[in-house]
Structures are given as C-alpha cells and as structure tokens.
Amino acid sequence: MTDTQNQRPVSNHAGDDAATLPTTYAPAEVEGELYERWVERGYFTADAGSEKPPYTIVIPPPNVTGALHLGHAFQHTLMDALTRRKRMQGYETLWLPGMDHAGIATQNKVEQQLAESGLSRHDLGREAFVEKVWEWKENYGGRILGQMRRLGDGVDWSRERFTMDEGLSHAVQTIFKRLFDDGLIYRAERIINWCPRCLTALSDIEVEHEEVPGELVSIRYGEGDDSIVVATTRAETMLGDTAVAVHPEDERYKHLIGRTIKLPLTDREIPVVADEHVDPEFGTGAVKVTPAHDPNDFAIGQRHNLPNLSVMDEHGAITVHGPFLGLDRLEARSAVVGALREQGRIVAEKRPYMHAVGHCSRCHTVVEPRLSLQWWVKVAPLAQAAGDAVRDGKVEIHPKELERRYFDWVDNMYDWCISRQLWWGHRIPVWYGPDGEVVCVGPDEQPPAGEGWHQDPDVLDTWFSSGLWPF
Ligand SMILES: [Zn+2]
Question: In this structure, are 273 and 335 located in the same domain?
Fold first, then answer.
C-alpha cells in the first residue's frame, strides 16, 4: 500500500475508483482522522441555550495518573452509545469529560521523580512541590485523554474539567463548609489505616487485603491461678495493651473480671473486662486489647473507657522506653517474643496462621492501624437519604434484584475519614487560632489573619471532590 492510498478519504463517493481502496478495512488508518474531524466540527459540543430537551452524562473522572483499562472501555462504550442514541433522537446531549487529581497516586509519582535526584518533597517545600505536581500533570497527565480520543468517545472536549480546577475547588470548599456548619464534618481521634511509608491515612479501598502466612504466639499474662493466656500474630502490640477482655459468662475467667493482672515486659497492671463481643469458643476465649493499634480493640476500649496507648510512631517504630525503643515493628515482633520467651511467658509459638493483612495499594507496605486525629464525615444521615431515595421510588435500580446489594451498602456505612497527610489536593479549609479557635472558612470568605493563626496542613481525600463531580 502506498502513502497516497493511505491518505484517501474512506467514504466511497460515486465515481471514486474502487480499485484504489484497500482490500481490508484498517481502522487505525482512518479512525483518528475521522474522530478529529468530528471534534473540529463540534458534533459533540453541547449548546447550553438549545431548545431541545437535555440529556447529560458526566464521566466518572478517571485518575490523572492512569491509563484506561478494560473496565473503562466497557463503561465508556455504554455512555457513548447512550449519548449518541439520544443525539439522534433529537436531544441536546452532553457527555462531559475530565479527570481527577488522584491525590496519593500523583504525589507518589512526583516523589519518585524527586527521589531519583536524591530529593524529598520536604527539600522543596509545600508550594514548590505542588508546582512540580502541576508540571507533571501537564507533561504526563493526559495519557487517558488520548486513549479516550482513540476509543472515539463522543465527549464535549470544550468543557473538559479537572477536579483541581477553580470552579470545582470552589464547590469542594462550599460543601465542606456546609457539612461542617451542619455538624456533619468533625475532627476526632480514631483508628485509621496508616501507611508508614507514604505517611498518610488511607481509605479502605486504598488498602489491599492479602492472605499471608503469619505466626500465632500464645502469651501468659498474670500469675498462677490469676493468669490468662492470649494469642496474637502481632506480639509487639502487647506493649500497648490496656486490658484483657473475656466473655461475661465465661466460667474460666469469672473470678478475674474487674481485677487487674500484670502485663509482662512492662510495669503496668491492666484490667480484665467482660465484653459480650468476645467469642469464648475462639482460642482461649481471652483477647488482648490494644485500643490504639486495632479497630476492634478500639471499639472495646470505647465501651469500657480504656486508655488508648500508642506504642509506635508514624514510621512504625516502637516509642516505648526500654529495650525495644526505636525498633521497627517487624524487628520488635521477634524481639518481644524473644524477651517473653526468656521470662517463660510463651505458652505456644511458631504456629502457622494464614491471615488477611492490609497492604498500601500504592507502595505495598503493610498498613498499620493507627490511632490518629483526623477529619470525618458523619455518614449515617447522608446514607439514610441515599437509601430513602430508592425506598421512596425516586431512584430506580435496574435490575431490581440488585436493590438488596445497594441497601446492604448504604445501610451499613460508617464514618468516612476524609483527611490525608498529603500536599497534593484540596487543602482543608479550617484555620486554628492561638487560643484554640477552630474556624471553617467558606469559599468567598477571608481566612482569619494575625499572629498564631494557621491552616490545617492536610488535604481532602480525592473522593471528597470526585464525589461532588456530578454537581
Ligand atoms: Zn504506602
């Protein structure tokens, strides 16, 4: 095939010499050009002043760092078919494209780039780093958009948006302020998923659970008749235990409930508490309670008013004074077991135990449940409204039998941690004053000025903004 043949238009007008057409259709040679022609002629551009009935789809914004995968291709095919059909039916159609800023993923890309020159984001400082990320976005962030063109997505490129655009940032701040004023956003110390490498809180979907072989160790707390055996795969967390919990009806431990026992390797006495949620059939029927390092234990701690004792820093190193100080959590694990063994406290060990361990989806580090002061959205009233919309028939789910799955989801939500210890993203619009003031600033308001005022350093979870995208 010659170049001249390549450049011929595909349409076979009457009078064209059919013999010069290629014998097989080669989409790669014609689609790109055809697509650009459609875009140039404004076939996908919506007219806001049109008299026709409107039909609009907003694209679920893909990550700026990403490449399209099969799921996108499937989703885009559906949206494309729907908008094109409506357009032919006489609707004014808009399929709105855009991307989200993918907080942690994008920050990681730029941090990796800096690391190649031996730098960290702290060497640059916040402002310069954020500028670097914008640069990265301009240079590498458009891959997914090129792929959408290649797929032939009939989107209105004149309206392309990005979650960090001014308009969307304004919306983010507006909604934050509204939820804050309504008491639906609050700050509290809770257990979150923490990546000791990325040094940020992660959402549940940023944690990948993998079955990995662990080792169950049984440890004896207390002395003689007053001793209790607990089992754990994370022996190092025993340094932060503040109780042992047993079932209230468990005859083996009834005499100990309300009393204290000595916690090995420390000089602390911890109480034995009775808790309905402990399964007396599982293991010894007694569980160690580490409220600052385990979400279930945190819940037990709340029920029994136990202190939350953090024993690791943000990097996962032990902070308890003594022989384990400064050890990484994994080194500490074997060191703690070794010390317990020396004291004759190990009842059983080296029992293989497969268990699900959370890994950071960005860097694969083992996630540490960590007690930390974060911002939260009170989800229940919002989820209730989302459930009611379907219960009241305002929104229909097709096929209908999937309603149950929807209700399982919206009726079982817990509060959402929205703060991230990152620099790339929408910064939390809250200022703290020198006398403990906490002021949430709306998008058209001036932040408080003067000595001692500073803005919260964290940014919002990317989903806080991409979730507002349709509005
Ligand atoms: Zn990580």
Answer: yes
In a domain, 81, yes or no: yes
Q: Quote the CA–CA distance of 309 and 294 in Å, as a whole number.
A: 11
Same domain, 304 and 354: yes
Q: How far is the CA of 380 from the centre of ligand 1 (A)?
A: 29
Task: Quote the number of domains for the chain.
Answer: 3
* pTM passes above 0.85: no
Distance of CA 358 from the midpoint of ligand 1 (Å): 11
320 and 346 share one domain: yes
Does 4 have pLDDT greater than 70?
no
Instruction: Tell me the CA–centroid distance for residue 312 and ligand 1, in Å.
Output: 17
Please state the rounded mean pLDDT for residues 211-236: 91
One domain for residues 378 and 461: yes
C-alpha atoms less than 13 angstroms from C-alpha of 128 in its C-beta half-sphere: 8
If you search the block for the tokens 């361990």, which residue do you land on?
357
Distance 195 CA to ligand 1 centre (A): 5
List the Cα angle 319/321/322 in 5-degree steps: 120
CATH code for the domain in which residue 454 is found: 3.40.50.620
Instruction: State the distance from the centre of ligand 1 to the C-alpha of 376, rounded, in angstroms.
Output: 21
CA 359 – ligand 1 centroid, Å: 8
Tell me how far the alpha carbon of residue 197 lies from the centroid of ligand 1, in angstroms.
5
For residue 150, how far is the Cα from the chain centroid?
A: 30
120 compared with 8, residue with greater pLDDT: 120
Task: Please report, for the chain, how many H helices and E strands are present, in that order.
Answer: 13, 20
> Residues 413-465: pLDDT tens digits?
889 999 999 999 999 999 999 999 999 999 999 999 889 999 999 999 988 98
**Ligand 1 centroid from CA 200, angstroms:** 8
Whether the pLDDT of residue 308 is over 80: the answer is yes
Question: Exposure string (b/e) for 51-83, b if CB count within 10 Å is 16 or more?
Answer: eeeebebbbebbbbbbebeeebeeebeebbeeb
In a domain, 11, yes or no: no
Q: Ligand 1: distance of its center to the CA of 170 in Å?
A: 29
Instruction: For residues 172 and 160, give the distance between their C-alpha atoms in angstroms, rounded to a whole number.
Output: 18
353 and 389 belong to one structural domain:
no
What distance in angstroms lies between residue 277's CA and the mean position of ligand 1's atoms?
A: 32
Same domain, 399 and 443: yes
Domain around 315 = 208-361
Whether 161 is in a domain gets the answer no
C-alpha 110 to ligand 1 mean position (Å): 14
Kindly state whether residues 247 and 349 are assigned to the same domain: yes
Same domain, 65 and 51: yes
Residue 4 within a domain: no
C-alpha span between 29 and 144 (Å, rounded): 21
315: Cα separation from own chain's centroid: 19
The pLDDT score that the predictor gives to residue 67 is 84
